[in-house]
Amino acid sequence: MKIFLELVVGVVVAFLIYNCLHYFFVTLPTRRYQLKMKHEVDAEIYKVVKYFEVEDQREIIQSYVGSQVLSDFWGRGVMVFEYRCVVKDGYEDADLLRSLLNQKLAEYAVPDGFVDAHEKKTLIVTDCWLNKRVLIFDVANVVNPATHEYLSDIDKLNEKERET
């Protein structure tokens, strides 16, 4: 009985040590990096939203609501962020809005250094939809293999959606 109790206590202590080490050496640095990247991407998205809010003659966007990291859903290391904006009445084509956002994002992001080693832009609007008058769109910052895998998964989902 004493050996069994020591074994259980040893397993519990090992589990606690593993979780502490994992938190401080894996989870915490990943969150810090994601928040750093989110702040950088937020600055670019804010420019794009301001353009559609003020400068564009169509004045598509009425106001910026907020953003969040989506890694809890897609997995560790995926640099995908969700943005929400209120759109003015009359804009109901999410595909058109996605195209406009991608075009303007490319204009702003490439000069600001959001490019990879092959001069390819790293900020991509991966998903876009309207819920009532709220435009919700996801932006991927393609800087690591996990985000590349996310993009290929999204492409596969889009292909299956087009087939049905």
Describe the structure.
With 164 residues, the protein is α+β, with helices and mostly antiparallel strands. It has one domain: Threonyl-tRNA Synthetase, Chain A, domain 2 (2-Layer Sandwich). It is 57% helix and 21% strand. The protein contains four helices and four strands. It has helices at residues 2-55, 71-74, 94-109, 145-163, and strands spanning 61-69, 80-87, 123-131, 134-141. A four-stranded antiparallel β-sheet has the order 1-2-4-3. Helix 1 packs across helix 3 (94-109). The longest helix has 54 residues, at 2-55. The model has no long low-confidence stretch (mean pLDDT 86).
Query: Mind summarizing the main beta sheet?
Result: 4 strands, antiparallel
Mean pLDDT: 86
Q: Count structural domains.
A: 1
CATH class assignment: Alpha Beta
Task: Report the order of strands and helices.
Answer: HEHEHEEH
Compute the gyration radius: what is it?
21 Å
Strand content: 15-25%
* pLDDT < 50 stretches: none
Here the CATH topology equals Threonyl-tRNA Synthetase, Chain A, domain 2
Q: Helical amount among residues, as a percent range?
A: 55-70%
**Based on DSSP secondary structure assignment, what is the total number of beta strands?**
4
Number of helices: 4
Shape by Cα distribution: elongated
Strand order in the sheet with the most strands: 1-2-4-3
Question: What structural class do helix, strand and pairing data support?
Answer: alpha+beta
Distance between the termini: 61 Å
CATH architecture: 2-Layer Sandwich
